[in-house]
Amino acid sequence: MKRLQGFTALLLATAIFGSMGVLVRYLNYDLTVYQQIIFRNILALIIAVAIILLTKKKIDFKAVPKKYLFLFTFAFPLSVLCFTFSVLYTKIIVTTMSLYVSSLVGSLIIGSVFFKDKLTRSKMIALGTIAIGLIVYAYPFSVAQLNVGFWMGLAAGGFDAIANSFRRHLAGKMDRLVLACLPIIGGAILSVSLLMYTGQSFFPHISTLSWLIGIMFGFFVLSISYLTLVGFQKFDLSLGTVVLSSELFLFFKKNRLYKR
User: Confidence band (pLDDT; 50, 70, 90) for 258?
Assistant: First the structure.
């Protein structure tokens, strides 16, 4: 039952994540990369804080080493930042492919080294299936696509694997909703720092459509953060990443529309 709950949570996170690449491009009409990251993270944080206050969740970090909390806070925001850059510099289909190549390899290595996960026959079949899916998904793939967008996608996958490993390690040690807020806070801090460094405006003109998309994105960011905590608490790290990569099949036709 627990594995089924974990599988369902990760599958829901996949469904939500599948729409994020398109939303990034819509927000790009009004906002720069850094502006849209802080915009959606602040909205997600407002939503999360409101839920925590209404449900009277207990905020207690004593049971978790602070260095792990720090790394968890910034790993996923770095993945999102790299993903955002990748989407803006290459095709969505290339971004998705490079992200999952890196995330799957990273999860397999981290799971084997730190969590002592075994490479079972079922896991090899699942990874092999995803490898075939990646080839079909990205075909035809040319050397010209090995641009900055591709490499940023690989970086996004690497940080994603690190974030997922901390989700597995930290989930269950404190309230999941409170824990889910940390990457959102990290995203806001990171984007504010980059915004100040580049000298960009904090409050540009934002259209009504972008506000609506931003609020939707805020719910999505919080939902993904929470659902992946639930999923990886009950699932093998590399197999959990395989479930997330089912986006390749669930959204194959939709993402093909954005390949041109």
Answer: very low
